[in-house]
């Protein structure tokens, strides 16, 4: 009797599933974060993206936070066991674990953030800031009086090195003699380290600040001393409304909504992701210029930036304020006509890295180890 | 002896095993009841919560594997620490010693052209020596220069962390890692096998249990063990007995550091297969092992069980995080509560409660000795 | 850059970064002087940091925030005292459990409080007159927190209290030999409770300093291991409040220099410098000094039962 009922239930279920189709099966999306969602940085931003996905697409989501890199596979196991059929893993260190899990669960769709290994059911994605850092650099170059711009970096890895170099190219485009001074804190999140690194830069005479780490510390410390700075990752305008010039904001939701929309529509399946790589920049709106959404440049600095006129090789006499928006349009509109690493670009040891008229390839960008001219300070792993 | 109502409470010198187990179990139950209030406050039915935790830990094969996997590094670090603690040498440095083992194993795995099983053997040996050497330093500092070992071992943890950072950002940065701070992957021969269907690198488990037995034997049966116990009781007594303080603590710390380092070898050879950021190699195992060794009251065999207890606690934390979808910080609160109740109840073990015969009077507190 | 900039920068940063370390260390010194080790400093600090931020943000009074942080830190310490003094539980485990518990609880309560700038941070002070002195002025008297000077003052007071008053003798005797102290009529339990609670009070202030003055914002895990440095500094200072001053500021200065010097020395190696330096200093002082001077309080870590020896 029980067996009969069971068989009947299975048959009904199969019929229903068959009618609706597998692609229409209810999505349950898992997110694995490397930090706590309260970090107000990387994991916080991914989680905001997740919440928007939940709101806009009406799919069920689950997340796990503070997952150590070596543990990612065990958490993937648990999420799969819970019925997740799409899983995002959001740290470079999760790459190999995600790949192994993707091979173990061929019917689950995976997407790994910031890595380079893909599989039929494993896509990669990244929202990168180098263009925005370049725009910030233009403003920083115009605002420094001492000709020294300070930069606090988390770890000397390609992502951060790329950001610093793009930023420096911007600085030197409007202020050829200015230098960018770098300090590393070797942590993604440590307010005390970020603070003392900033203080060290201040003591060395830097008077404008940018950074890549997960807290608004640099913005706060700079503002305390009256120096302008650029926010990073999350909206940091509120931390220093009179001193934050601009910055970068990420919109992971753009990628998540697009990706999951295509999964829902049946366009992405667990069979065809081997070439799916989101490398989303300004033109896809995955990143935004500003310290606050919708405000590319803090009005407080509009006057100073408009008053700083440069003799530009391409645009002639132009204010930095206008230059920022011209460049933003060149990179932000579809059909990108400019890249910060447009050749000729020399590294700081004098070697030609990008020949005149060329742009850097994606591979060259994501493995970038060298520093451009104008970067001052230690550069571990410099070729 | 003390009279409480109709009951008579006595203190005893050493609690019987039944009291230890009974009281500890009671403490855990009370802690779980208190934690239930937190679950309930979060809108999760405590009943469902504990059912899920049971399913995700002791109630399933996967769960049991998880417990084992989580306890692997704790067994070795914990067993090693019991040795140091028996000598009253406060080794807070298992974390750094573990990393020292990971570093040495990585060096061997990447650069020593050894065939087959010899490679793994050499990794464990090199790891043991490196951790032992890292452990001897505080012993020397203490014996020769009177540097307090709590401070030296703690500081040396930070030093080792930055040595690892330096290695992965500098000389050992992997050519295949695209500029990211990892060493290259180990060759296949340098990877530990897993129990099929799990991620439990069983050789580490075997080594851990063997180490517990070996340390127990050393403590109970050898001259070194005797000397360690004497030094632990009183350095003055040790001096009168003609025991060389330096030699004894140097050996204790060599072994203690070496065992912690074996845990590090196990982590890189059984989990990561490369050297990576120190905070991702060890999630504070060296510190958790301090609690493991303490709860075991300095007994290496008991440390295996307290390590398993922590494996269970960590696995339960995962269930709380993933299946119950509660904030991960709950696990800290949860672990803290269990520990508070476990140690807070310790005094109860020393009490014997019986019905007071009529007419007996309060006679003051009886003397007793702690542990 | 001339030597003046290096001197001014390093010393003034040493004072700022050393302040939470000093408060925490002074507290732990009193705790341990009474014979109790409290490894829960990290937990008490983070609870202090969160409660200070929450109160300062809600009320607009950063001073009140620090005060509440002290109360919260003290309450957490009393829990440790109850476990270790009354229930005679293992002090090391209890402290580690307190750290776990505190980090978890603060993170839990703090969800949703991150990413908010504190509307009114604890202001820094510049001392009129003194701040004009060349070199010394900017080095010591410009833009420092009130809590920096309060910490220095407290260190002196606590030193006098410990070494020059009857009360201090009681504290020290409780830590050295509780049974002797008991025989002399000192209430061992009361002294231990007071000292442990006081230690938590100061750890709470240290945490509060971080979230309302040093870097006015809340993020979970923001103490980032300072509590462990405090434990080390307590021993480094040989349980002496005045030596804690130089220990905390020395560590602060080195920590700052580890960023300043990055232009000249590999950054990873610089990061380990403060820790290596701490060992080096102890080793050098240990050369030729009598062992007793660096000795811990005799009964440190041991529970006390009346009627026992």
Considering the chains and any ligands shown, give keywords for the structure.
heterotrimer, A: 383 residues, alpha/beta, Rossmann fold, 2 domains, six-stranded parallel β-sheet, 38% helix, B: 371 residues, mainly alpha, three-stranded antiparallel β-sheet, disordered C terminus
Task: Summarize it.
The complex is a heterotrimer of chains A (383), B (371) and C (309). In chain B, 68% of the residues lie in helices and 4% in strands. Chain B has helices at 17-41, 46-56, 61-86, 94-111, 116-145, 149-169, 202-221, 223-233, 235-240, 245-272, 278-281, 285-295, 300-322, 329-344, 346-349, and strands spanning 2-4, 7-11, 351-355.
Structure description:
The complex is a heterotrimer of chains A (383), B (371) and C (309). Chain A is an alpha/beta fold. Chain A folds into two domains: 160 residues, Response regulator (Rossmann fold), CATH 3.40.50; 171 residues, Rossmann fold. Helices cover 38% and strands 19% of the residues of chain A. Chain A is globular. About 3% of the residues of chain A have low confidence. Chain B has two domains: 88 residues, no CATH class; 234 residues, no CATH class. In chain B, strands 1-2-3 form a three-stranded antiparallel sheet. Chain B is globular, with a radius of gyration of 23 Å. Chain B starts with a strand and ends in a 16-residue tail after the last strand. With 309 residues, chain C is mainly α. A two-stranded antiparallel sheet of chain C has the order 1-2. The radius of gyration of chain C is 20 Å and the shape is globular. Chain C starts with a helix and ends in a 23-residue tail after the last helix. Chains in contact: A-B, A-C, B-C.
